[in-house]
Amino acid sequence: MTTTIAVTDDTSDVRTRLEDFVSSGARGLVITDPVDLTLPDRTSVDTVRLLRDAVGHGLRIDWRASPVDGLSVTDFTHLPPPANLDELSFLPDSDAESWLDLYSYGQLFYRVGPGFVSIKDVRPTVPAARMTLEEEEARIFLELAEGGGETGNSESLRSELVEYGLGIAAEGGFLVLPYRIRQWPIPFSAI
């Protein structure tokens, strides 16, 4: 069963119902409107957050990206490529084939434990890294991942996430790139 979702001004309701979709047997997600990866507004940030969360649930995703000039795939190789890759214009160091070649499930994710968050980044475009956030940093990270945490005490962590390529500060808001992994592949050692 595939759930079709039209991108509207409020994707937060869809994100909160994502677990219900998965538990009811949904195995795929179709986003009907093109997604703007330049993240110019809150809707586009929330839609990419929805894509990220759906990947973490192991859903098959069918989506299209808005054609923009000079797109870099570096920040998004942990998400499945859009269906309209051949219509997109990429920066010289990026192209459609590289996104197809670089994507695999489990490249950039986080896990939540009691009082900590563990992040694993093995994207082929950056040096492999693992990090653990504890207590207050873990709490702020989870708030940022859910789309909140725009308070003054999150500025330091937001800056670190951007510096390490784990977050994007855009006009539309802040986006944490790793997804919370909820669907482990078989064998689990594959990631």
Explain what the structure shows.
With 191 residues, the chain is an alpha/beta fold. The protein has one domain (2-190). 28% of the residues lie in helices and 20% in strands. The chain has five helices and nine strands, in the order E-H-E-H-E-H-E-E-E-H-H-E-E-E. It has helices at 12-23, 42-56, 96-102, 135-145, 155-163, and strands spanning 2-5, 28-31, 60-62, 108-113, 116-121, 129-134, 167-170, 173-176, 179-180. The strands form three sheets. Strands 6-5-4-9 form a four-stranded mixed β-sheet. Strands 1-2-3 form a three-stranded parallel β-sheet, covered by helices on one side. The chain has a two-stranded antiparallel ribbon with strand order 7-8. Strand 4 and strand 5 form a beta hairpin. The protein is globular, with a radius of gyration of 16 Å. It starts with a strand and ends in an 11-residue tail after the last strand. The relative contact order is 0.15. InterPro entries: DUF5825. It holds the Pfam family DUF5825.
